[in-house]
Amino acid sequence: MNAGDIGALVVFILVVFGGGSAIGVSTLPGDWYAGLTKPPFNPPNWIFGPVWSVLYIAIAVAGWRTWRYNRTGRAMKVWYAQMLANFAWSPVFFAAHWIGLAFAVILLLLVLIAAFVILAWPQDRLSALLFTPYAAWVGFASVLNGAILLLN
């Protein structure tokens, strides 16, 4: 790895972790979310920050590795698309209070994550594997979002 590669990795981490953190802080759950009826499997609010912190690092590393392999390939394009969906979900759910639209966004995100894994697997299995905990978490979050939609 050369200095340019390390610099690019730092940029990926700053954009993904920094962007995700900034969106998370600017769209905290607040009173609206506290007043919603939630399913019994709803985790405590404190768990989301640590989980997303770890996931954002894995997402950044996978994106960086994919970018190094093929900057204009389909896997990289899907990686960008999933980041847009990822960054859109919190403002749609927590700021706009559009539970139904947020459910559509998170389902799209889940499809994009799966597409990334499928596209990345033949070229870089580590990048694909870095997305598997992300897929599991977003799968759980999709079920949670759907349950909140049904209950409210």
From TrEMBL:
Source organism per UniProt: Roseovarius spongiae
Transmembrane intervals: 46-66, 78-96, 102-121, 128-151
High-level lineage: Bacteria, Pseudomonadati, Pseudomonadota, Alphaproteobacteria, Rhodobacterales
Protein name as annotated: Tryptophan-rich sensory protein
Main location: membrane
Keyword ATP-binding: no
Cell location: Membrane
Record-linked InterPro entries: TspO/MBR-related_sf, TspO_MBR
GO terms classed as biological process: tetrapyrrole metabolic process
Keyword Secreted recorded: no
GO cellular component: membrane
UniProt keyword terms in alphabetical order: Membrane, Transmembrane, Transmembrane helix
Pfam families from the UniProt entry: TspO_MBR
Family: Belongs to the TspO/BZRP family.
Membrane topology note: Multi-pass membrane protein
